[in-house]
Amino acid sequence: MIRLMRLLHGLSTQHACVISTPYGPDIGLQTVIQLDGDVIVRLIPAVLHQPALWRTHHEQVARVLTSLRRLRQGLAWGTTIVATLGTVPLGVVLWWQTQTPWWLSSAGVALGTFLGHRLLARLLGAYIRHKLQGGLR
Q1: Of 4, 103, 109, 110, which is most buried with the most CB atoms under 10 A?
Q2: In this structure, are residues 76 and 120 in contact, taking their beta carbons and an 8 Å threshold?
Q3: Which among 56, 67, 77 has a CA at the least distance from the CA of 121?
Q4: What is the residue extent of each domain of the chain?
Q5: Residue 39 contacts residue 31 (beta carbons within 8 Å)
Q6: What does the alpha-carbon distance between residue 34 and residue 14 come to, in Å, rounded to a whole number?
Q7: SS3 breakdown of the chain: % helix, strand, coil, rounded to 5?
Q8: Model confidence over 86-131: pLDDT tens digits?
């Protein structure tokens, strides 16, 4: 959880994930994964023949990529849950006020969830694009 919080902090402040592996007093390898998809790898020449250091750095990058994947999945599930919770009262009101069959109310809730999820996903995507364009200028 702490790793995810650090990842979110880095994404919000630097618009990137920075993974650094030390080599002596310096940073031997550094991978920067930007939100727009660019990946930048920096290294000092002394680490070219250090397979153990490369392996360690690769494992760190793999952990960050796993965290990014989980974050993306969490956002997708979160928007679905928010959309569902927002449409359940609509289905209940529809059933209560009109005395429609239960299956019709359920279909209304399911349709509302689907459309709400799509709308929230688009709004969230537009917001992130807006923040990135404003933050990168």
Answers
A1: 109
A2: no
A3: 77
A4: 2-135
A5: yes
A6: 9
A7: 70, 15, 10
A8: 666 666 666 667 776 666 666 776 677 677 667 777 787 787 777 7
